[in-house]
Design goal:
This protein has about 90 residues and is mainly alpha-helical. Helices cover about 85% and strands about 0% of the residues. The longest helix is centred in the middle third of the chain and has 31 residues.
């Protein structure tokens, strides 16, 4: 839990340092960043459902389905992070 919070905090600090003070943010960069943030939010929601709702009920089938969804979303988020490294963040 603490590791996730640290990752979110460092991501916010990094985005703020890149996007603030250097000019107008590039719309494509913001779109890709927004998509990545949305995917990570969905992943965190699925993880919370797995941990607090499904694990106490020992619903292994739903846990494995959600874990597979999380894996797919995580791979997509990593690909978007790679794309962010190739895009120009400001105009």
């Amino acid at each position: 839990m603490v590791a996730v919070l640290l990752l979110v905090m460092t991501g916010l600090i990094n985005a703020a340092s890149i996007l603030l003070g250097h000019g107008a943010p590039a719309p494509l960069y913001l779109g890709v960043l927004g998509a990545k943030l949305a995917l990570v939010a969905v992943m965190l929601g699925l993880a919370a459902i797995n941990r607090f709702k499904l694990m106490p009920r020992a619903n292994d089938r739903m846990i494995s389905r959600n874990a597979a969804l999380e894996l797919g979303l995580g791979l997509t988020a990593v690909m978007l992070a790679g794309a962010l490294g190739q895009l120009q963040p400001v105009l």
